[in-house]
Amino acid sequence: MAPTQYKQILFNERPADQINATTFRTHLAPFAALVPGDGEVLVQVTYLSLDAAMRAWMRPVKTYVEPLAIGEVMRSGGLGVVLKAGKGVKLREGDLVSGAVGWTEYGVFKESQLRLLQVPTGAEALDFLGALGTTGLTAYFGLIDVGKLKAGDTLLVSGAAGATGSLVCQIGTILGARVIAIAGTAEKCKWLEEELGVETALNYKAADFKERFKKTLGAGFDVYFDNVGGEILDLALTRMKLKARVVMCGAISGYNSKPVGLVNYQTIISQRAELKGFIVYACSSFPHPTRTHTFPVRFRFDYAAQYPAALADLGKWLAEGKLKRKFHVVQGIEKAGEALPLLYSGGNIGKLYVSFPSLSPLLTAY
Ligand SMILES: NC(=O)c1ccc[n+]([C@@H]2O[C@H](COP(=O)([O-])OP(=O)(O)OC[C@H]3O[C@@H](n4cnc5c(N)ncnc54)[C@H](OP(=O)(O)O)[C@@H]3O)[C@@H](O)[C@H]2O)c1
Questions:
Q1: Which of 249, 279, 316, 354 is the most buried if burial means most Cβ atoms within 10 Å?
Q2: 280 lines ligand 1 (CB under 6 A)
Q3: Residues 41-54 pLDDT 10s
């Protein structure tokens, strides 16, 4: 039976530093108002993706997207199931879709803003928000295009037990690199070494970190995939081989506070190194085996035209069991605001999601 009301989480107040209890507020909206018009569908959201970049969207400055407006439904990618299709729509009831759904239990969306999904062999629906979504594409293009990783290279990865970093480590191994990982707990380091197969994982919170870092890096790295910026980036700049490449993916250490400046940057000159940024921001899809129609997606971000080829590789590696993932799932949309800070405290292992425990029977297939 349809509910009378549904929950949305609104962006309520710009945090000065850490996300807190007043950053978001819950809004109850009438379900009866959700009527899909021409070219629209009603979607029940099943999973939300929580991403480190969300903190950057809260600042009152334009980045690669507009800043969040106060009162806006919190922006996020998610998965959902089509409950009702409006006129002239190709999507059907029960279709699994992904899109920028936001923190809401239900919503009416333009069909053109959604992607029809079919879970490929070896994958799960959640992979469309992970290995087969923005996260996987970020790891893929960061390593292959920005980092120009070659077999035999030494690859250093920070934020290595997170969503992006854990895929970077494994793609690095697939491409024949020697992988050295940095993460914030002994448990994460154990997972990286014993299950993901990195050569060495270093705990940056351990007292002997700098000493172990220097010893392990030895002659230095060819590629550093930087997810964290700040002090770890500065330390890494002291261990670059000649013509090293630093993949500037993210700088999470500076998202909640004033970023720390670099001191060791003169090595960039002496080592003829390259530091390069890039942005992947994808609404993921995967070729549907029987439904040939696709929906237009506006490609505004780096590499968008190359997504299909990258997804084919990522899908193949998943099917071959070469990409292991941890799904860190927090239950209930009302917990999303408490769960998001886990990314900044290091409370997550692998990809962080919010699930909706009260699924209707229609949705249990997913
Ligand atoms: N350029 C792009 O297009 C793009 C796309 C996606 C993501 N990103 C970036 O990739 C990075 C990872 O994002 P994600 O969504 O995959 O999150 P994630 O890695 O799953 O989670 C963030 C991790 O960062 C680590 N961390 C937090 N604060 C830290 C600090 N001060 N110093 C060192 N490590 C810290 C934590 O692990 P520990 O326990 O190890 O501290 C935490 O688990 C972010 O910087 C994000 O902005 C960039």
A1: 249
A2: yes
A3: 999 999 999 999 99
